[in-house]
Write a structure and sequence with these properties.
Length: 211
């Protein structure tokens, strides 16, 4: 099951964060906090829901619980690490398990946080891992297809899951202008829709990683 929340007030989106926890209340509370901090947050209660989302979009960060039904958090992390596009993952656990934390870092987790935690601590960690991953995997793709700097900025917003309104607020332009730039990006990359664009980016990164 997927959960989402609406911000109490609209603000520029700082990117999409997926909160993965089988506890619906935890998902709702964390999503509400993240929305208030300017992120677009979406809660996911299962590995299936998570893999469905990351197959068509590139979130800025994933906050993943260690204890999940079916596939464990570590198993989910292992599957994510084998995918061509790497998304920063922060593992969270109700237990300060050093062995689990070490294993998570070996599997590619960007950070490990123990519940309960202060909201400010989580936000700081998300900011840190997102900043560390700021070297976008599609910068050279944009250059290859002759995207303008503004079109590249819009491409970044698209892959973060931002709507035209959110992207416009972040970039300081109107939603209509974002829509025009989005159309130019789609045309230059030969994408028919957003899902097609994501497939192009994923294919590009996968091919690049094989070189």
């Amino acid at each position: 099951m997927r959960l989402s929340t609406k911000p109490i007030f609209e603000a520029p989106s700082r990117g999409t964060v997926l909160v993965v926890d089988d506890d619906r209340t935890v998902c709702e509370n964390l999503c509400a906090i993240l929305e208030l901090e300017g992120f677009h947050a979406e809660g996911v209660n299962s590995s299936e829901g998570l893999f469905e989302l990351v197959s068509t979009s590139l979130p800025a960060c994933i906050v993943l619980d260690l204890q999940m039904p079916g596939m464990s958090g570590l198993e989910i992390l292992g599957e994510l690490s084998r995918r061509p596009v790497k998304v920063p993952v922060i593992m969270m656990s109700g237990h300060g398990d050093i062995a689990a934390a070490v294993e998570a870092m070996k599997l590619g987790a960007s950070d490990f946080i123990v519940k309960p935690f202060m909201a400010a601590s989580l936000i700081a960690r998300i900011d840190a891992v997102v900043d560390a991953a700021s070297a976008s995997p599609h910068v050279d793709l944009a250059s290859k297809h002759g995207l303008t700097p503004r079109e590249q900025e819009v491409l970044n917003q698209i892959t973060r899951g931002s709507s035209n309104k959110e992207a416009g607020r972040t970039l300081g332009i109107s939603p209509r202008t974002v829509e025009v730039h989005r159309a130019h990006v789609m045309s230059k990359l030969g994408a028919r829709n957003t899902a097609d664009l994501m497939r192009i980016i994923l294919s590009h990164v996968q091919a690049k990683n094989k070189r």
